[in-house]
């Protein structure tokens, strides 16, 4: 005989078992998707991607470093002369400038001088000093080189360099240069050039009124008035 009560009881058990089975399947799927942390109270930081590398721009003042020959580097040397301390003597053929210290010594600088046909000699005095001077090429230079600028403001790109000392009423100057590789050569239109470092040193020693002697090409300063230019 059919037992209604037993049937209802079995139906309830089957329904409960089915619900349990479905829940277990859902739980195991979620567990597979997200692994269960063994220690949920420990905070693990989220992984971060490395920041992109930033490259710095090249420096504007990067350039070739010119290594000056030892003989052209500024140095104190033995120098016999009758000229008073503070006098500047240009040894044109040997491309040296001497600043007389007295007591048989002088500071010797390597210089660049006038090219063939543009050397000169004589006695002048410093009539003006300027830091980072403007450059205005004289008319005779413009006539020879019409491509030159008519005027150039002072600065690192200016061919007069960091300092200039003007000689008498002439167009000639003792000045710096933005081309240190030309020191020791006969290349200019008659001006005397030093490295910017050396011309700054000389500028600090020279005053307006300083006597400047420019030796001619046919007279070597190291043979005049005895042997000169010996390094101490």
Folded structure, characterized:
This protein is of the alpha+beta class. The chain has two domains: 1-39; 70-231, L,D-transpeptidase catalytic domain-like (Beta Barrel). It has three helices and twelve strands, in the order H-E-E-E-E-E-E-H-E-E-E-E-H-E-E. It has helices at 4-33, 139-144, 196-205, and strands at 75-78, 88-91, 96-102, 105-110, 113-114, 122-131, 163-167, 173-175, 186-188, 192-193, 211-214, 230-231. It has a ten-stranded mixed β-sheet with strand order 10-8-7-6-11-2-3-4-1-12, with helices on one face. Strands 5-9 form a two-stranded parallel ribbon. The protein is globular, with a radius of gyration of 43 Å.
Q: In a few lines, what is going on in this structure?
A:
This protein has 232 residues and is of the alpha+beta class. Helix content is 20%, strand content 22%.
Characteristics:
232 residues; alpha+beta; L,D-transpeptidase catalytic domain-like; 2 domains; ten-stranded mixed β-sheet
